[in-house]
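Forwarding these from the shared drive since the link keeps breaking.
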Amino acid sequence: MRVRVTFRVNNRGGLVPFHHQYLISEVFRDILQRESKDDLKDYPFFSFSGIKGQTRLSKAGLHYNSRRVTIVISSPNADFVEHLVGAIFRNKEIQLGALNLTPEMAEEELPVTLHRETKFICISPIVTSDDFHNPEHKLFIEPSSNDFSDQIYDATITRMTEFGIDTDAIPEVHKFQLIPDEDYLDKLRASNKKFSRIYPVYYQGEQLEARGYTFPFTLFAAPEIQDFIFTCGLGTCCSMGFGMLDLVNSDPTERTVPYKSAESLVST
């Protein structure tokens, strides 16, 4: 399930760092710690997007000039999504950097049918390793290499198994290949732009770092695997704000329906 939460911006022009997934992660973590039972306080099977809205760039970061912004929250566990979204709505104000927000509306994205070949874009960076204390975990891996695809596959199968999915029962589960859009990567290289960076990550209250990648790609995998990563994120650190995907050439706002009213979410 994917739910799009719309927030009213209380201080238009409020500043947020360019790479702000860790800020959202800490806010969600604090909300879950305060408002959840033990089995949901550190629930790992979800992902979320960055803050989407009209921005003005400065050296300090992003200034949000729109009256409203959105964050997409996704998980294969619909009960968890309802719990987190409800907990968000019980907070009249949410502070992300210097941006002050009030939750206003929630919409559900309609399910999509995914096949063995799907073209994705990243709406938050992909992280291949969460071995934070291994100095090699931040090393650059060429996205077109088998090593990159293999690490993503291993992380995905591990998370699916931990979620409770019998991956051995999935036909041709080992037929998995991630192929980046090389034309896109070549254009970035030619213009000296980056598709891979070191991002701040908060893990168990400690600020760490991870290498993330952002580029369009085609994924060849079983539909069951495609469905899982579309709702739970790709790679590692997904509950910390990484690995969220969307479909290439698709406007998700065209496939949304009302979710639950703010009043019913607050009383959830």
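-- next protein --
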Amino acid sequence: MKTVLLAACLTLIAAEAQAISRYDPTRMSCDRVRATIARQGAVILRYQSPRVPGLALYDRYVRDERFCNMGEVRARAYVPSADAKSCPVYTCKRPDFDRHFRRRILRHN
């Protein structure tokens, strides 16, 4: 019985890991990239670095903050697409409260 339960748990974990789709945005128009994210909620976009040949860049891009982890916010990012060098999309980031705090202190001095 324990073996069956363990196998079921491992299957659920593997299914969850495979649930997010992966795309190459450089083979899609910017509108199609944005529509795919809007339709699926969250996707992984993988593309070659424009600065370092052979280096693959990838990240998870989301439709809105509901697809971010707790404590993260949606932040604008840009990815290359077939028809644009910088297609605006969103990713999840932890807010940098320290940076905002320092900026306020510098303004008041």
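The chain has a mean pLDDT of 83. The chain has one domain: 20-108.

- D.
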